[in-house]
Amino acid sequence: MSLLVKGGIVVGATGTQPADVLVEGEKIVAVLDPAYSQTVQADELIDATGKYVIPGGIDAHTHMELPFGGTAASDTFETGTRAAAWGGTTTIIDFAVQRTGEVVQDGLAAWHAKADGNCHIDYAFHMILGGVDDDALKAMDQLVADEGITSFKLFMAYPGVFYSDDGQILRAMQTARENGAMIMMHAENGIAIDVLVQQALARGETDPIYHGITRPAALEAEATNRAISLAEVARDCPLYIVHLSASQALEHVAVARDNGRNVFAETCPQYLYLTLEDQLGAPGFEGAKWVCSTPLRSKHEPHAKDLWKGLRSNDLAIVSTDHCPFCMKDQKELGRGDFSKIPNGIGGVEHRVDLIYQGVVDGQLSLERWVETIATTPARMFGLYPQKGVIQPGSDADLVVYDPNGTTRISAETHHMNMDHSAYEGFEISGRVDKVISRGSVIVADGNYHGRKGHGRYLRRGLSSYLV
Ligand code: DUC
Ligand code: ZN
Ligand code: ZN
User: Fold this and answer.
1) Residue 455 falls inside a structural domain
2) What is the pTM of this model?
3) Which of 46, 111, 121, 383 could form a disulfide with 461 if both were Cys (CB 3.0 to 4.6 A apart)?
4) Closest ligand (CA of 321)
């Protein structure tokens, strides 16, 4: 079965050109100058005239079905990957979890059991280590060597849940330095945050906004800097700061990178568009929709502006979603009267490609940088390149036809995520996902869904392309 995507403007991380893309089976076989593709015959033709053709989006940070805060993230692998596909994301990297006291490989097996046969798009796993000990360190080597898992997330936050102390972090970093893996860090000083949370609750400060107030930027910056220092001690272990939200944390990343360190970072759309005051501080209990960690930051400080700048300068390499949806009903409501009991997380896997395209429209990013931050760099950072993240012969035929003249209105009424609200309700994007192709199959076309669960395959990842 062959497919020709014809008449579009192919946008990649390194340039933009009119080109036709020929797909044979699941792979791209040629990127053709339109003047030379007149004679090419294909079984199926997709007219991309006036539209961009980009590599399928890769969301390197999702949490489908994550048990958290006394409940579980409301998207299953089935609903979440379907929603991702609707929004132009054709690969996710989800976080398998080793809970404290659990064997790492058992945690991984549980994640495979959730995902296997249920995904609409291709997927890979990072591994959360909730208990770094001798066995977990050995398991890191085994996962890198045999399972295609080459990145491990540690938490400086959530004492008693996922938290690792500095000694545990250092040991995991030393192991990663040896086996080539990336350490991903949730960088917030959880011990200090818990003191602030208890003090706030004792004062009767129970509304959702206090979730943000008790997680100040200084404690994200402090943890970020500490993680960078620990990685330096571990002989420059590769370090990737997840969901970076604060200017002060970004500053530490920028300094480390200027010094030539193996330090990388991502941000998420919520930190580019949403704020402590306007969303987390919404009247009554509404703000619960936007309780996530790291938290939304103040609009009176330059965080969002600095994050866009960081994306331009590559101090921020990637935009992921940290997709961790919880419904208001029965889930976020667990924290009515006590913000510390609101499950942490925002859902957005469906909207990342559009929200960052809006950055292009608004003059924040170039077209090429849009593609780079949502697809190409995630592939390179996490060992999926060039199978994913690029339109070139030999790569998987994961393509999005994107209409710059279309409009996307975001609403819980129309989205496909399993959430009873939208963090971006009412947002209007000056662009629209027109068609989505996953490994040569058209799964979204003109507002209709043609994908199926089970189409998505598990991807074994290599080491990061950014490291020697
Ligand atoms: N942050 C969230 O908001 N949710 C899940 C885990 C995390 O670190
Ligand atoms: Zn986190
Ligand atoms: Zn996360």
Assistant:
1) no
2) 0.98
3) 383
4) 3
